[in-house]
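so ive been stuck on this for like two days lol. basically i have the seq below and the ligand is thiamine diphosphate, smiles is in there too. i just want the complex predicted, nothing fancy, no docking runs or whatever. if the output looks off dont worry ill sanity check it later, just need somthing to start from for the group meeting slides
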Amino acid sequence: MNSELLQRLKDAAFEIRCRTIREIASFGSGHIGGSMSIVELLSYLYFHEMNVDPADPKKEDRDRLVVSKGHSGPAVYATLAYRGFFPDSLLETLNQGGTMLPSHCDMLKTPGIDFTAGSLGQGFSAALGIATAQRLKGMDARTFTIIGDGESQEGQVYEVAEAAGAWGTDNLFAFLDKNGKQLDGCVEDIIPAFDTFGRWESFGWDVQEIDGHDFAQIESAVEKAKQHHGKPHMIIMNTIKSYGYIPGETEKNNHSMSISKEGAEAAIKALREREGRA
Ligand SMILES: Cc1ncc(C[n+]2csc(CCOP(=O)(O)OP(=O)(O)O)c2C)c(N)n1
Ligand SMILES: [Mg+2]
């Protein structure tokens, strides 16, 4: 990855993290853990990879993103705001009455959200449907989707695995946010995910495993996937739940957390220092 792009993406990730932390603090609590673990991916998709236009969020030939772990809405909204889909000021309305930004992604409420999610497993099915429609219409567009490792315990996920593998849906690019944690504990303690890589391969997917916080690895995996025709793509991302919201990184229960306004500013200061930013 060239250094100019790397710096641009790192800056975007920092801006998105600051916005996500403040946004959750404006409501007082929210899904910080699974929001922060996908920030590098969101930065990469919206600031480098995806064909989207904030001035025309519904343009037909766009690439789509279905965040099937829809509780990560706060990070997605922060990304969309920073990309220019709507003003930053809306982030302060997160989850409040009448908001355009409900805690879970809603395609009827928010410009730039391609599918409603929150009931784990369902968004992933929709992503396959959207990718299939793009193919049937002869479009060049891709569908990106993000699922969680806890979400991967949903049986519906494996209906998608089977169908997409059988159909060779190669415009479907899935990312598994393997942060090792679900709502109330570690995946390994609840339903250990035996051989995640082999499992997806066995369904006929093109599978890679990377560090989900490393932009160079994200770029190389996406570029490799684009060259691999005839199979849907699964990029397993090893991540840290709450990454970048430093007080949450070492917290056992970091799925949904309370954040005060002062706590948000202290956390942003700590992140700024850790990243060596002025
Ligand atoms: C069908 C369904 N069951 C339960 C929930 C409640 N729930 C919300 S988030 C979550 C844990 C998800 O864990 P994971 O997919 O690993 O998400 P992440 O760690 O990325 O936050 C659960 C059980 C839900 N949203 N949908
Ligand atoms: Mg998880």
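The longest helix spans residues 3-27. Residues 148-150, 179, 181-182 surround magnesium ion (ligand 2) (CB under 6 Å).
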